[in-house]
Structures are given as C-alpha cells and as structure tokens.
Amino acid sequence: MDAMTSTTTSAFAPSAAENSDERRPGSEWWRTAVIYQIYPRSFADASGDGIGDIPGITARLDDLVSLGVDAVWLSPFYRSPQNDAGYDVADYCDVDPLFGTLADVDEMLAEAHGRGIRVIVDLVPNHSSDRHVWFQEALAAGPGSAERARYMFRDGRGEDGELPPNNWESVFGGPAWTRVTEADGRPGQWYLHLFDSSQPDFDWSNPVVQEEFRRILRFWLDRGVDGFRVDVAHGLVKSDGLPDHLPAVDADSMGGGDEDVPYWGQEGVHEIYRDWNRVLAEYGGDRALCAEAWLPTVDKTALWVRPDEMHQAFNFPYLMTAWDAAAIREVISESLRAFPAVGAPATWVLSNHDVVRHASRLALTAENPQGHGIGPDSPGQPIPDVGLRRARAATTVMLALPGSAYVYQGEELGLPEVIDLPDDARQDPTWFRTAHERYGRDGCRVPIPWDADAPAYGFSPTGASWLPQPADWAPLARSAQEGDADSTLWLYRSLLATRRSTGLGAGTLEWLDGYGEDVLAFRVQAEGGAVTVIANVGTEPVALPAATVLVASEPFEGGLLPVDTAVWLATD
Ligand code: BGC
After folding, report:
1. Cystine design at 71: which of 35, 38, 286, 287 (Cβ 3.0–4.6 Å)?
2. Measured in angstroms, how far is the CA atom of residue 229 from the centroid of ligand 1?
C-alpha cells in the first residue's frame, strides 16, 4: 500500500544539533519557519479610525503566540498617500500616522522579539509614491536633470512626443506611461509606472537609487527587523532601450507567462540582490530577504535564491496550482528539487493580500489570474461549501512540507473571499484602472473578525472598518472558534503545534504509492518522528492504513478518509 516511489530530500534540512547554533549555514530560522502575514490596515485597529495600526498589532501578539507561528511579515506601514494601500511609499523611513509612529514600531518589535516572534517588513524598491520628495523634485527639475534620472522619464514618440515611449501596460490596467506637464505649462516627458500612475518606477541603473536603498535597508536593520519581503522583486531592471513588449496583449499579469517580458526577470536584478545580501550579512542573527517574484515556473523562481542572493522566494507556482492531485504533486516535487538545488529552502504559500483567498479560490470553476479578484458578476463562482473543506485540506498538506510556509491573516479563521462588496466600497486601483472590469483585491483584504459580539467583530473599538465586513461573519470570529475543537482556528493550532513537536518543516519527503491518482500521499521523515500525510483530492472516500491520527482537516470516523480531507498519521 505504501511502497516508496520517489524520494525528495531537503539537502539543507537542519538537524537538532545544527539548530543549536543559528548562524551555522543550513540551520537558519527562515529555512523552516511559519511566517504569518499581517496586512496592517485590516488586522487590528487600536485607534478606532477603522484602519488597523501598529499598536493594534502589538496588542494581539499573544494571539499569534497561541496560534504557534514563528515570525510575522508586515505589509507596508510607511508614509504613503495610500493609493495602493501603502505600496506607494512617500517616505521609506517613517511610519504613516494612520498606522502609528516609529516608537510604536520599536515597541512592537521589542514585544514580538520578547515572545520569540521574528519580524519581517516590506520593502518596495520598484517604485515610490508620486508624493515622494524625489519625484516631486524630478517634476520640478525638468528633462535631463539628475532629479529625473532617479526615475524612468523618457521623451514620447510621435511628432510632438504625444505617444508613450513604448507599448507597455500597467499591471493594474491601462498604459504604463503617464505624460507630465512641464514647468512652462506644456505637455512634456513621460514617466514609467508598471503599477498605478501614482507609483513611478525608479531607475535602478542609477547608483544614487542603489545607495538610497542600502541606506533604507540599514535604517530598518538597525532598528532590529529580521528581514525584508521584497515587493515586485522581478521588476526592478528593465530591458535596455525599453523595447515594446511583443505580443502586446498579455501584459496584465505579474508573471508574464513563458514569454520574454522586457520588464520582468531581467538578468540585472540579481546583482542588486547580491549587493543586498552583503548588506544583510553585515548584521548578525540570520536576517532574511524574501522575493515577491511572480515567475511562471519553480525553476525560474529558484534563480532569486541562489546562495549569494535572496534567502527565500514565494512559491507562486504552488499557490496558483488548482485542486488537482497530479498537479499538486508535480509542483511539490519540482519545488523540493529546484530550491534545495541552489541551497535554499522550498517555500509554500496559499493566500496573500493580492489573490482570492484559498477558502474560495480552491472552489472556483474558472481561472482567476493573480490580482483580478472576483465579484458578483465574475464567471466561475466558487462551488458553495466546498472551498473551506479544500482550504483546510490544502493547508494540512502545506504545513507538513519541508521548507518555510506563509500564512495570511484570517486564513486561520477560514475566511472566504468577500465577493459582494458594494461597488462604492472598493478601493483597489485595479478596479478603477480597468473601468470596473476587474474587481481587484479588496475581497481578500476585509478587516478580520476577532470578537463575534463586538462592533466590527472586535476589529476596532468604534465599529469602524475601512471595508465593510459581511453580516454573517460572527461564527468565523476568533472568539466564536475558541471553544470549538473542530474549528479552523483549532486546526491551524494543532497543525502548528504538531509541526513543531515532530520537527516538520525540515526532513525528507517520500511519495507513497497505491492510494490512487486522486490522492496525495507522502511520508516526511523529520527529527521528531515520521509523519504520513494523505489528502483525498478525489470524489470517493479513501481507505487509510491503521495508524494514529495526529491531525485531520475534518472530523471523520472509521478508516475512510472523506473527500476533500487530509490527515497526518503517526508513522513508524
Ligand atoms: C504587492 C501589491 C502591490 C504591487 C505594487 C505587489 O506585488 O503585493 O499589493 O499592489 O506589488 O507595489
């Protein structure tokens, strides 16, 4: 029944002895950590203005300790006009008053570290806000100036420069170029923005830009952060001469498919990360760089984590894999081959602030490219009641895999995507730049419910919430799940506690045969024992071997594993 078919070894998996010295290569914390993504504006609002903040995070750290995570990653809290929810940074070294102060961040860091939780912050190097002082200076200084050379200003094509310099399109929809009005009132140059027009791209060939980001890294490293999640890490360098993107039709996704896109994955980005790797190495304590690089394959993603570059890269090919046993098995095998081959841990992620939450996405019946979102009129609405079961099973599989895993706030509550947000509540620039054709990402960003009986489900003391929360979320609130051993919250707690006690996250994975093609079955030999994982991705119950159930994604009786369910079994 459980004959071994293939073995995938995480060559750099640490032994307990190695773990005793965190600086020894191969034993760094980020190789096996479970990292919880906090999206600050939607996590916990202490001030009562309806937008989550840093003091709100500090006040909730004990909940993250009881959940059992090792680290948190915070999406941006820097000074920003918030046109793209903070991914439009006006000052990289200050905190937006919406979220608090630098002193609040220092306190949050100290409180997190005091509880053994590491803190990764977001770095947004591809572009700034148009309110950044550099961009304001660039507008004022005019063509040919050193101020403009920090961004991607170009003359337009056409007789009077009235056409954009090339045909690139913004990820959020519409053209990637905007024309400025010069000081004399005449239409002037164009600037590049791969995202919103309020997010001008830096020119990374300029040493001044390079030096500024070294300064920003050191500013936060000096404050004690444990690393950086690097936004759009595949986009900083653009192809020489800024050639048209051919074919011109597929520029709306972050991955760019298999084609060569002149602004994604250019060779020059790697030199930047080698440089940053050296900056982090000046500091102790295993600081980490994690690449947000939407690349079509695991092999391409692994180029970002070669030994002298970043430490982790999000495994988006895994995230984008449908609920299909063969496809999941393939991406896991490829990941456990490709990442360790360059000395990096595999990483795993199912949800974040840019994609449809996996409690809905895994039951979608049509493709949904990253960032497009779903709304009431989208094709392929999720099959009712199926999404959460699949999400719980998928997480049960993910948290057993060798490597580091990311969990997005609210998935431990089983939150679905909010599909029916009122149109006038939506705030994602995608919604506006596509004339409401794409709903965008607001549905996965709704403030999370803490207390079933409190205003705004305990998200804010006043009941204010920057996006409306669904009226039926009381049963999903943390308080409602506390007393229910079958809740999603308790499933996550059990998975994380068992992961810790058995040493999962490291170890060696072998696939097990004989369960049928709709079943994922593998054994992980970890430091604290062996665990067999079986996930029923098919349509019929699956007979389980006799073994102690450590954790199950759904309650079940007898030896038959129900559909859309996964278990961890103790194994000799
Ligand atoms: C972030 C998005 C953001 C974009 C532009 C991303 O990939 O995760 O939320 O809109 O970069 O900064």
Report:
1. 35
2. 11
Q: Which of 53, 203, 231, 252 is labelled catalytic?
A: 231
Same-domain status, 164 and 294: no
Distance 445 CA to ligand 1 centre (A): 13
Contacts of 254 (CB under 8 A, 6+ apart): 171, 232, 264, 294, 370, 371
- Specify the number of domains making up the chain: 2
Query: Does the annotation count 282 as an active-site position?
Result: yes
Is there an atom of ligand 1 within 6 Å of 231 CB? yes
The range of the structural domain enclosing residue 374 comes to: 29-127+206-492
SS3 call for 419: coil
* Closest C-alpha to ligand 1, atom 12: 87
Residue at a domain's end among 492, 516, 533: 492
In order of 223, 304, 535, the CA distances from 328 in angstroms are 40, 22, 11
Ligand 1 atom with minimal separation from the 84 CA: 10
Active site residue 424: no
Distances (CA, A) of 504 to 68, 117, 262, 399: 13, 18, 40, 8
CA nearest neighbour of 309 among 347, 271, 337, 282: 271
**pLDDT tens digits along 74-117:** 999 999 999 999 999 999 999 999 999 999 999 999 999 999 99
C-alpha atoms less than 13 angstroms from C-alpha of 336 in its C-beta half-sphere: 25
Q: Which atom, in ligand 1's list, is nearest to the CA of 124? A: 12
pLDDT of residue 572: 77
Rounded to two decimals, what is the model's pTM? Answer: 0.95
Contact between 116 and 68 under an 8 Å Cβ cutoff? The reply is no
CA–CA distances in Å: residue 259 to residues 249, 252, 295: 12, 13, 11
Query: Is there a domain that residue 9 lies in?
Result: no
Closest atom of ligand 1 to CA, residue 88: 12
- Nearest atom of ligand 1 to the alpha carbon of 126: 12
Ligand 1 center to 233 CA (angstroms): 10
Q: Is the CB of 87 under 6 A from ligand 1?
A: yes
pLDDT 10s digits, 486-522: 999 999 999 999 999 999 999 999 999 999 999 999 9
Final residue of a structural domain among 492, 511, 530:
492
Q: 456: CA distance to ligand 1 center in Å?
A: 26
Sign of the C-alpha dihedral computed for residues 85, 90, 93 and 96 taken in this order: negative
Q: What's the gap in Å between 98 CA and the centre of ligand 1?
A: 19
Alpha-carbon Rg for the chain, nearest whole angstrom, is 23
pLDDT for 164-174, tens place per residue? Answer: 999 999 999 99
> In CATH, what number is assigned to the domain containing residue 288?
3.20.20.80
User: How sure is the predictor about 528, in pLDDT bands with cuts at 50, 70 and 90?
Assistant: confident
